[in-house]
Amino acid sequence: MASSPPGPKGLPVVGNSREYAKDPFAFLTAVGEAYNRIVRFDLGPLETYMVTDPVEIERVLVSEDDRYHKLVFGDAIDDLLGDGLLLSDGEQWQNQRNLANPAFTATRIQGIADTMSRIAAEHVADWQDGDEVSMDRELAKLTVKVIVAAMFGVEADDDTVETVQENLEPLGQRFEPDPRRVLVPEWAPTQENREFAAAVETLEGVIDDLLEQRQGTIDDGPTAVSEEGEAPMDLASILLRARERGEQPESQLRDELMTMLLAGHDTTALALSYTLYLLSENPEARARHHAEIDEVVGDAAPDARHTRQLGFTDRALSESMRLYPPVYAVFREPQVDVKLGGYRVPAESAVMLPQWVVHRSERWYDEPEQFDPERWVPERRRDRPRFAYFPFGGGPRHCIGKQFADLEAKLVLAVLGKQFSLDYVGPELKLRGSLTMHPQEPMTMRVNER
Questions:
Q1: What 3-state class would DSSP assign to 432?
Q2: In a domain, 12, yes or no
Q3: Is the residue at 5 inside a domain?
Q4: What is the rounded CA–CA span in Å between residue 165 and residue 338?
Q5: At 424, which helix (H) or strand (E)?
Q6: Rounded to whole angstroms, how far apart are CA atoms 403 and 226?
C-alpha cells in the first residue's frame, strides 16, 4: 500500500491545531489549495486525513462505508448526544434508524407542512416595518418550535424556547477548536466544563418536561401526523411506545431526543440565515425570489404544494448550502487500514470530508465564491461528480431529516418572502467553527414590509 500523503508540518503535541483553531475555514481552504485530493495533518494528537476528491468521498460514505465508523471527539460530545443516531454505529444505529424512519416518511413530512407554515407565520406576526432583528437567533427559535411540534408532538411555549436558546452558547463553545483542550482532562472542573455540564442537565430537563406533556397521548389517533391513522408518528411517541414494549431503554430515549432537538433545529436555522444573508447581498436574486413567491403562493398560506413550484427558491437554498454548509466537515474513523487517493490511511485515524473546501473548489464550480443559484439548473449541474456537493452527507448514514429540513426551509422562506424584504445590516460576516458553522456576531437584518 502507498506511503502517507503530504501535508503541512505541525508542532509537537498540538500539531496543526493552533492554526486550525485560529480560523478553521482559512486553514482548510489553504490546505485544500496547497495539496491535491488528500492531505495529512495533525489536530492535536489526532492524525487527520482530509479528502477532497469526490470519488474518494463517495468511497468513504457509500461504497466502502462498512469499513468506517463515526468519529467521536472525546467525552463531551458523548455526554451531550450519547448513542443517538448522529453518533451510534453498527447494529445499534441500524435498529434505531429503522425505529425512527416512520417519523420521516415523505407522507408524514408532507402532512405536517401546514403546521410548519403556521408556526412560521405566528413567529413573525409581531415584526414591524423598520425592526432590526438578530435573524440567526430568531430563526433558531422558530426551528426549535417546529422540531418540537413535529418530533415531540407538543407545542413549545416561549419559556421552553428561551431555555433552549440560552443553553446553546455554552454547548457551542465547548466544541470550538482549542488546542489547550489537549492538555486539560475533560473531567477537570474548569468553568467551561462546568457550564457545559449545567447546559446539558438543563436541556435534559427540557426533554423531560416535553415527554411529560406527551405521556398518555402516544397511542391517540387518528392524527394529522399519523400515516396509518392509528397512532401518532412523531418521534417521541414512537420511542415511548418502544420503551413500553421493552425495546428502548431510558438512556437511549434521552439520547435520540436530545440529538433530534439540537441537530434537528440548528442546521436548518443556519441554512435559512445564510440564505437570507445572500439574498440580501444580491438584490436581483432577492427580487426574483419575491416575484416567484408572489406568483406561486399569492394570497394563500404557503403549503407543501407551493414548495414543489418554488424552483428558484430551491436553487437559492442549494447555492446557500454550497457556500455556507452548516455542517462544514464530516468525519469518519477507518476500522482497518484503507487506501484513499493512492495513499495508505491507517485504522483509527480521522478521515475528514470537508464540505467547506469541496463546495468552493474551482475544479467543480466556475467562480466558486459567487452566489449563483442558476448553477443548479439541470444542464449546469449534470456534469459535476455526485459528491462535489454533499451538505447532508451521503450513503446509508445520510441525514435522516433531509426531506424534513428541505420542506421546512422552503416554507419559512416563502412565509418571510411573502411579507418582508430583509436587508442585512450587521457587521461583515465572519464565521466560527463548532459542531456546525456559526456566525461570530449576530446576523442583524432590517425588516421591510413588502
A1: strand
A2: no
A3: no
A4: 41
A5: strand 420-424
A6: 17
pTM for this entry: 0.93
Q: Give me the amino acid identity at 431.
A: L
Number of H helices, E strands in the chain: 18, 12
Q: Characterize the bridge pairing of strands 343-345 and 338-340.
A: antiparallel
**Unique residue bearing C-alpha cell 458523548:** 78
| Structure letter (DSSP) for residue 5 | P
173 in a structural domain: yes
Work out the angle at residue 438's Cα, subtended by the Cα atoms of residues 302 and 325, and round it to the nearest 5 degrees.
Answer: 65
Range of 274's domain? 17-449
- Beta strand 350-353 with 46-51 is parallel
Total domains in the fold of the chain? 1
Query: In whole angstroms, what is the distance from residue 442 CA to residue 440 CA?
Result: 7
Instruction: Identify the CA nearest to 170 among candidates 140, 139, 206, 203.
Output: 203
Distance of CA 156 to the CA centre of its chain: 21
What is the per-residue pLDDT across 117-151, written as a single tens digit (0 to 9) for each? 999 999 999 999 999 999 999 999 999 999 999 99
Q: Compute the distance between CA of residue 410 and CA of residue 112 in angstroms, rounded to an integer.
A: 14
Tell me, yes or no, whether 10 lies in a domain.
no
Q: Are 412 and 309 in contact (CB under 8 A)?
A: no
d(CA 111, CA 105): 10
Name the grid cell of 307. Answer: 414548495
Q: At what angle do helices 250-281 and 74-81 cross, to 10 degrees?
A: 100
Would you say 390 and 57 are in contact if contact means Cβ atoms under 8 Å apart? yes
pLDDT in tens, 38-87: 999 998 888 999 999 999 999 999 999 999 998 876 666 666 777 777 76
Domain CATH for 241: 1.10.630.10
